[in-house]
């Protein structure tokens, strides 16, 4: 395994751990639920997108710009798991097929999914920029 691959694995672990930790800490702030907004395209949760961007920035800082597609893929896989669990658990309650439920749930969450993917990409990109900033700001020894 190359050093670059190891950095990506560590970055993904740091990003996911950071996201879980930040989400858990948000549970202790009583007014967090007030940031969620309902739109015609579904629920928007700007604070959650900010947390995702911060968590992915940690990964981007660790692994550089190569982490951006990894951050997007991680977020997409997380959303796929969430949507699948929601569709499966609600199928028995509404007496509809899992595929029908998944379609309805996706339509309701499409804006949130898109915002999460953009936040992950921007966060990872900003993190990679922060990684390069000290090197760019260092004075030339010559």
From TrEMBL:
Kindly state which keywords UniProt assigns to this record, in alphabetical order. Answer: Membrane, Transmembrane, Transmembrane helix
- What parts of the sequence cross the membrane? 7-26, 46-63, 70-88, 108-126
The answer to whether the entry has keyword Membrane is yes
Q: What is this protein called?
A: Uncharacterized protein
């Amino acid at each position: 395994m190359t050093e670059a691959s190891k950095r990506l694995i560590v970055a993904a672990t740091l990003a996911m751990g950071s996201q879980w930790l930040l989400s858990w800490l948000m549970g202790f702030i009583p007014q967090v639920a007030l940031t969620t907004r309902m739109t015609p395209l579904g629920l928007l949760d700007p604070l959650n997108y900010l947390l995702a961007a911060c968590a992915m920035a940690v990964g981007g800082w660790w692994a550089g710009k190569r982490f951006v597609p990894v951050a997007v893929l991680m977020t997409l896989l997380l959303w796929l798991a969430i949507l699948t669990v929601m569709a499966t658990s609600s199928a028995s309650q509404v007496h509809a097929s899992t595929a029908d439920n998944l379609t309805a749930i996706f339509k309701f969450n499409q804006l949130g999914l898109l915002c999460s993917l953009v936040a992950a990409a921007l966060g990872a990109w900003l993190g990679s920029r922060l990684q390069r900033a000290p090197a760019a700001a260092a004075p030339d020894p010559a």
